[in-house]
Amino acid sequence: MAKRLATEYVNARLQLSADDLDRFVRFVGGQNIRIRVRVVGCGNQEMALVDETNGEEVSMTFEQRDDRFVCELSCRLVHPKLTNALRRAVSAFRGDAVVNRIYSGFTMTYYYKRGAVHKIVEHTADGVRVVFERRDTVGELESLYVSRQVEREIERIQDAIDELLDLRNQCTSPSEKQAVDERLRQYTKQLFILEAE
Question: Keyword Coiled coil, does the record have it (predicted)?
Answer without folding.
Answer: yes
